[in-house]
Recover the amino acids of this structure.
């Protein structure tokens, strides 16, 4: 069934490509070998080569010249340099942390609506689609994947503390953030050990995205200092930071990595890609871990978009590559092959994803848990300083959490740091 | 006889011509030999340096607007507490890393020079290992040593009853971590420079000093130090330039907030601040202004160091 469906899709796409491929080849003056070249810049470590080879095999009229630039940040830097110099590739993969900085100047990228992006808009979750929509309404990117957001927790430590271990029962412990904090304090009281890795990572990262409006309003005006939703998200994290339930370990620090295996904390935030991080830090931990939903409604950490820079030689060809590789079927296949969590609704809802279980995480259907988190998220406006503002709030929480700064003055400090960071 | 007299006369004019040509070539050719360095330096060193001054006068987004704003970047910079924080951090880390490092290097070079060591070459060469180890690898190892919960240092301290210290989270302790890494990387290199200079001092000078009744401290003070003066000046200036540009160590030390080296910018150096503004925020103009100020600071401190170190006793220049 699946094979037949994807074969049919490939055939349709291939046919479409033959038609458009010829026309774009002609308009570009024709490549040397009669094939249209697509210069594609991607990250290392995400196996872009295999996807490119697959695409070229199915579409011999295209010649994809793949450059694996480096890490996602290095790729964004290289793209910046390319735009500044005026010699750009046809297609670039940009991680969402770097996206707003680049799309703040929408003139640097092609509005994909001019290539037919509206037709596929409905395939993807609205919040990740709109993350690549510029203030003037241009669609600058197509989402390739998301992170989702779940809690990974230690079943052995939960059992020892008298807590349930079944994901559904654990989720029932914390429908709201207040419930979650109560469970956390209870755990710490009983065991004398911290419950979460850090307040910035395991609370704020979730709460601050469970909003309908964040640092910008829908007119693109900054509202980070007046928006009650931001303050509420911040206060929840401060509560967690000052109640003694945090292990005060910064994400990816040495102590944090060792603490995963060591049981230094019982719960940590887990987007899809973090599941692999947990496995590699705690190779002996199979069966001691499970995954469940976060309190509130949904979450996300991570994801990327494909963009076509203005000045690309073969934008139509690049668009065909996007359509073929980011269809719901293709994103589902990528999840099944490599675990990249899809941004396409149909892929997240597919039985193959919903039923996928992971023995390391006590045979929990991880795909279903993460799928719930991305389906529940609401879109909110994102601006060029979203990353910088979030970083300053996160730093302010860490100061309370790790350095014992005063929670009362911390909010004011956060606001003045943000004013400095975004240039007043 | 006639042939002998004839030959020089016949050959005279071409010889003079070719000798003159050779002389001219000998005078100009050195410029061609050194040209490759200076051409490449002009393209990759001098031009970016000068262009940096230009960019510092602009509100410069690499992929957006570029607007001339005069000295606004500098007035903003001098009013920016983050800049002063980074300046104090940089100077603190510089002093903590450079001073002990050079003293240690001098002492160690003295030992390696004098003591009758077996396998002296092995010890001398192993001084270079920290220098050729990648900074990223060094940082990872030191971050492990200084880790709060699992670090070896806190474990050793716990043996004498000291509570675990969150090295990276505190301001001065994080300076210490960065300084240790910087010192570790450079002290072997400086030791070798000192050692090379020590070996150039003739042995008989020490013998003569001994005959004159100078003890080993007096020898060190009045013979070794003055002889090392040029090398000491050289190492002080290179350490000043390097020590004020510390970047990779603080960048990699705190993965949760890499560009600020922690939530309170506790170990953010000037170059890391420059990087945060330029490449994190895309404020190239502001970043370039930080670069200009850093340039001035380095020139000033290197100048002061030069003045002080030329006064090292025994300088006869």
């Amino acid at each position: 069934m699946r094979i037949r469906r994807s074969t049919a899709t490939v055939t349709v796409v291939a046919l479409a490509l033959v038609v458009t491929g010829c026309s774009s080849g002609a308009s570009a003056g024709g490549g040397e070998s009669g094939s249209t070249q697509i210069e594609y810049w991607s990250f290392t470590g995400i196996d872009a080569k295999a996807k490119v080879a697959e695409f070229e095999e199915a579409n011999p009229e295209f010649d994809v010249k793949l450059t694996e630039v480096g890490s996602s940040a290095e790729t964004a830097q290289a793209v910046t340099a390319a735009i500044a110099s005026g010699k750009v590739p046809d297609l670039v993969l940009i991680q969402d942390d770097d996206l707003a900085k680049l799309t703040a100047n929408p003139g640097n990228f092609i509005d994909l609506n001019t290539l037919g992006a509206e037709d596929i808009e409905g395939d993807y979750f609205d919040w990740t689609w709109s993350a690549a929509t510029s203030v003037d309404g241009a669609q600058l990117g197509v989402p390739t994947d998301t992170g989702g957001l779940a809690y990974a927790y230690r079943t052995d430590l939960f059992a020892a503390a008298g807590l349930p271990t079944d994901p559904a029962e654990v989720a029932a412990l914390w429908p709201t953030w207040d419930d979650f904090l109560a469970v956390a304090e209870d755990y710490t009281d009983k065991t004398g050990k911290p419950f979460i890795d850090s307040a910035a990572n395991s609370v704020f990262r979730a709460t601050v995205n469970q909003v309908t409006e964040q640092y910008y309003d829908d007119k693109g005006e900054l509202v980070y200092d007046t928006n009650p939703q931001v303050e509420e998200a911040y206060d929840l994290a401060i509560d967690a930071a000052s109640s003694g339930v945090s292990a005060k370990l910064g994400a990816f620090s040495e102590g944090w990595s060792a603490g995963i295996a060591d049981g230094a904390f019982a719960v940590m935030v887990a987007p899809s890609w973090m599941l692999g991080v947990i496995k590699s830090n705690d190779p002996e931990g199979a069966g001691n871990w499970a995954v469940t939903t976060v309190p509130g409604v949904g979450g996300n950490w991570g994801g990327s978009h494909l963009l076509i820079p203005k000045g690309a030689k073969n934008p139509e060809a690049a668009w065909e590559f996007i359509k073929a590789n980011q269809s719901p079927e293709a994103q589902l296949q990528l999840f099944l092959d490599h675990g990249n969590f899809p941004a396409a609704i149909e892929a997240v809802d597919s039985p193959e994803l919903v039923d996928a279980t992971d023995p390391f995480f006590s045979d929990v259907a991880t795909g279903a848990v993460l799928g719930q988190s991305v389906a529940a998220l609401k879109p909110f406006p994102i601006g060029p300083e979203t990353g910088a503002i979030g970083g300053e709030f996160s730093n302010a929480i860490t100061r309370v959490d790790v350095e014992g700064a005063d929670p009362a003055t911390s909010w004011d400090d956060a606001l003045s740091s943000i004013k400095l960071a975004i240039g007043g | 006889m006639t042939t002998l007299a004839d030959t020089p006369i016949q050959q005279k004019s071409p010889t003079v011509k070719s000798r003159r040509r050779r002389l001219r070539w000998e005078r100009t050719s050195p410029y061609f030999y050194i040209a490759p360095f200076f051409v490449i330096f002009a393209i990759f060193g001098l031009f970016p340096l000068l262009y940096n001054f230009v960019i510092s006068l602009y509100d410069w987004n690499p992929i957006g607007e570029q607007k001339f704003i005069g000295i606004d970047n500098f007035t903003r910079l001098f009013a920016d507490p983050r800049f002063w924080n980074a300046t104090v951090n940089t100077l603190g880390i510089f002093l903590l890393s450079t001073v002990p490092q050079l003293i240690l290097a001098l002492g160690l070079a003295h030992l390696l020079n004098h003591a009758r060591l077996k396998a002296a070459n092995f010890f001398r060469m192993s001084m270079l290992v920290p220098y050729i180890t990648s900074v990223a690898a060094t940082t990872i190892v030191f971050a492990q040593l200084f880790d709060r919960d699992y670090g070896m240092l806190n474990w050793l301290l716990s043996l004498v009853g000291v509570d675990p210290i969150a090295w990276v989270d505190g301001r001065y302790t994080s300076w210490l971590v960065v300084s240790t890494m910087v010192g570790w990387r450079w002290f072997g290199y400086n030791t070798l420079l000192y050692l090379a200079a020590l070996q150039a001092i003739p042995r008989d000078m020490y013998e003569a000093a001994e005959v004159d009744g100078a003890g080993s401290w007096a020898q060190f003070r009045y013979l070794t130090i003055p002889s090392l003066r040029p090398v000491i000046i050289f190492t002080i200036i290179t350490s000043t330039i390097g020590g004020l540009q510390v970047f990779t160590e603080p960048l990699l030390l705190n993965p949760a907030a890499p560009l600020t080296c922690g939530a309170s910018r506790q170990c953010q150096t000037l170059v890391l601040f420059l990087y945060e503004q330029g490449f994190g925020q895309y404020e190239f103009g502001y970043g370039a202004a930080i670069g200009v100020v850093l340039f001035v600071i380095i020139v000033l401190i290197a100048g002061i160091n030069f003045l002080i170190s030329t006064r090292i006793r025994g300088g006869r220049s």
